[in-house]
């Protein structure tokens, strides 16, 4: 309906006091890694000592025998460097002035900070699946952690051909997904009876796995509701979520939640032990914190303040009539035991 100027000149619009996000996507793996991060306390790099082979010295000693006093080298260090990504928040002086008083519906700075924080998290969600670990240019990621040297010959600064124990599981050109593909991958990353804690793939592959389940199992999910994977664990259904929790639908495979992640790379599936793949965040001194919990933006990117999230505060610009602030995420993703990470690639459905 088109209203006349007689109405529009004396009647204001209705502005909903919440900005709806129609762009960003959900990222369950980002929520889990940033929400359960470790602290990068100090040091120019993050060193992880690993044992890469068993000592073959020693053994049974007979009567009057000679003790072996040799010592073998069995350990080496993987190293990771902190990376930094940033987003600017720019508020022009005139914009700040007009966004005052009774005519203000939402606070400009608050909305802009929440929106930019979500954009920063969305960018990080991409790096989590695509980072190559290139020095000074890219985060590490699940992509190079879950590799057997097919694509990434080294990890943590060490050659996988030399130290074969830092090879992850990598299966190429799967084609149509079969339960046997999942079982082979799961067996490969299960060590000492401890398997992956999370299986992550695209919505398309998640649905393909659902189609492989027995009709009675699928009916059970539809009747009881899908389990919900949250930042800290798994609850039985949407109704079991506590206030403020974000939940992602999960299927089960061998007792491990299988979730769909819209940021996951096409045709890939990852099996991850989250105790051995994590984010280490570096908090910068004299920088501020604020919660990226979407106070003014309705969308899927709500997070507690992650370790490594740093806010400069608003600063007076030197070359424009505005104030500028900078948001940073500093740190890196890494695995201290890549054997417990795996990926299946080339899945067509």
Compact overview of the structure:
By secondary structure, the chain is of the alpha+beta class.
- DSSP strand content: 15-25%
Assembly state: single chain
- Overall tally of structural domains: 1
- Total strand count, please? 20
Biggest sheet details: 8 strands, mixed
Percent helix among the residues? Answer: 10-25%
> Mean of residue pLDDT?
87
Distance between the termini: 46 Å
Runs in which pLDDT lies below 50 for 5 or more consecutive residues are none
Number of helices: 8
What is Rg?
25 Å
Biggest sheet: strand arrangement: 8-20-14-9-13-12-10-11
Secondary structure category: alpha+beta
Q: Quick one: overall form?
A: globular
Q: What's the order of the H and E elements?
A: HEHEEEEHHHEEEHEHHEEEEEEEEEEE
Short descriptors:
6-stranded mixed sheet; 8 helices; 349 residues; globular; alpha+beta
Write up what this structure looks like.
The structure is a single chain. The chain is α+β, with helices and mostly antiparallel strands. It has one domain. It has helices spanning 5-8, 28-35, 93-98, 108-130, 142-145, 179-189, 203-212, 215-224, and strands at residues 19-20, 38-39, 46-51, 75-80, 83-92, 154-155, 158-159, 169-171, 198-201, 228-229, 234-235, 248-253, 256-260, 269-272, 277-281, 297-298, 309-311, 315-316, 322-335, 341-344. Strands 8-20-14-9-13-12-10-11 form an eight-stranded mixed sheet. Strands 2, 5, 15, 17, 18 and 19 form a six-stranded mixed sheet that branches. Strands 1-16 form a two-stranded parallel ribbon. A hairpin with a 5-residue loop joins strand 18 (315-316) and strand 19. The protein starts with a helix and ends in a 5-residue tail after the last strand. The relative contact order is 0.23. The model has no long low-confidence stretch (mean pLDDT 87).
